[in-house]
Amino acid sequence: MDLFTHVVFAYLLSFVIWGPGAPQYIAAGALAGGLPDADALLFPLARRFPILEHHGITHSILGVTIVAAAGSFLLPYLPYFPHASTLLYFVAMMIGGLSHVFLDGFTHFAVTPFLPLSLRQLRLDADVAINIFMLTLTSVTLITLALERGTVPFTIWVETAWLLAAIYGGYLLVRGIARWRAGVARKREGYSSVAPTTNPRVWMLLDQQDSPERYRVRYRRYRFGETTPGPEHAMEVAKVPPATGPVHSSQEALERTYAAALDRNQWMARRAHAGEAVARGNVFEVRWFIVEVAGFGRTLGVRGEIDRTTGEMRLKSGFFRRSSPTAA
User: Fold this and answer.
1) Structural domain includes residue 230
2) Pair (264, 123) in one structural domain
3) Long-range CB contacts (within 8 A, 24+) of 261-269
């Protein structure tokens, strides 16, 4: 999840644990909730030491423990952090840091919590890493807490914090239950994996096969609460070398544009993706998209066209509607 959501979630979790009478531990938890993403600053070193890369050692129990131990001694020397129990500061920062590891593992981005002892990953696939709903909720939370600071009675601040904590907890609960139900549907329908989308109700049942010669994908949309998933979509393309000259079919248009589309959008190359091509005049209109990204009817991918006579491609990356192109 995004950095601000991590900080806000750790803040609210710490509030639930420590209560309104211990603001120093709430602040310590919130600070620790964002610190694992400081590994972005280690990018130059990560090239030489892979354990320092993003979602590496800082997103592990060991990394969180080291940061919490150092922070428990350093915090009293920072502004707004009074001298208090070193042990409780340590516990507060451990809780905040571990909440960060859990939230990242809750999404489709894997973490390795037992580094360096084990490479076993935590990846629950119950949420997407960044989505409009969570960004909006986090923005509203930050604005609300900032506006209430020093301007409303203490009891209203406390009630607001409890309400926001309940909203975040309810969101995670709905996501978790929906992921479980989607997993049941996956087994029943014979798919290999489940992928979340930006819509908490919508999930994708997936099968992918990616070899040096071919790429295959089939998927069905599952809506939480429904007993039967939507119709199946399937696609298979050969990975052909770059070529020019006439393009005779929509299948050939997909195969000609496949490598170029992945090269133009690296995010698409890392996720389950599919494509569609429709003849329109002298060109084939082509769209490649990430299957599990679907917010407000739009998806991330690559679209454009390939000339039916020359094979010249014009592709661009961005967000667009997933609906099929309309033939002219």
Assistant:
1) no
2) no
3) 261/286, 261/288, 261/301, 261/302, 261/315, 262/288, 264/302, 264/315, 264/316, 264/317, 265/300, 265/301, 265/302, 265/317, 267/300, 268/300, 268/301, 268/302
